[in-house]
Amino acid sequence: MTTNDPRGDGSDELRPETAQHTATYPASPGALPPKKPTGLALAALIVGIAAFILGWIPVLGALVGLVAVILGILALRKRQSKGKALTGVILGSVGALASIGMLIASIALVSTTTDMAAGEATALTSTTQPVAAAEPSEDPSVAPVDDVVVEEVAPELVAPAVPPEYKSALKKAESYSSMMNMSKLGVFGQLTSEYGEQFSVEAGQYAVDNVVADWPANALAKAKSYRDTMDMSPAAIHDQLISDYGEQFTVEEADYAMAHLND
Question: Are residues 178 and 255 in the same domain?
């Protein structure tokens, strides 16, 4: 395109019009929208997991769970990661409820224990009653008693109740002793082993302390079994009886068995 624009020197020569263009650039294909913050949602999730784990601890689990719920609600209001925030709220709520339940159960247990102790103390107090002193007789023929001996009734001792686990362990101990001729240590090990009966150490000790068993006779029965079925020598039988990896009888029990092996 040309225009009739005088040059300044008076001529009317035609010249091209200077065109001005504004450069435009396409948007970058790799540009991403700004990433939303997730700090509160992530914190709610982490604290919620902690509250879920600590839910069995009274008070502590409830406090941690409350923090997780608050963080989750704040994260939802700020439109952060909904999945993490909701998970934190749910786990925190479960942990808080579990902790409150444990607190209530603990209070009930303490109250029951206190009531039982008070009842036992009242029972013991009621059984101890002093004998009243004899009143002076109005009959002049009866001489007054100057010294009256006041006798006190001794409180009746009540044997503590045996827990059911202890009773079961005792029955098992009787079975191992009478049917398998095991030693005292052998029975204890079998009762408390994680590969055996899995009783507590206290229950196992109660069982071996109260079982009616003849441990030397058990050692003798074991010795005769080794002799008759495995043709072992007396020395080998004695070692097997007292070995920690064998029958675990005491030296005295093993000596008794060897002394009566041929009876």
Answer: yes
Q: What is the pLDDT of residues 189-204, one digit of tens each?
A: 999 999 989 999 999 9
pLDDT tens digits along 151-204: 676 666 666 788 999 999 999 999 999 999 999 999 999 999 999 899 999 999
Q: What gap in Å lies between CA 103 and CA 87, rounded to an integer?
A: 24
Task: Answer for the pair 103, 57: CB distance below 8 angstroms, yes or no.
Answer: no
Half-sphere exposure of 35 (CA within 13 A, CB side): 3
Torsional sign, CA 163, 164, 166, 167: positive
Q: What is the pTM of this model?
A: 0.41
Residue 172 within a domain:
yes
**H-run or E-run covering 152:** none
Domain that holds residue 92: 39-106
- Number of folded domains that form the chain: 2
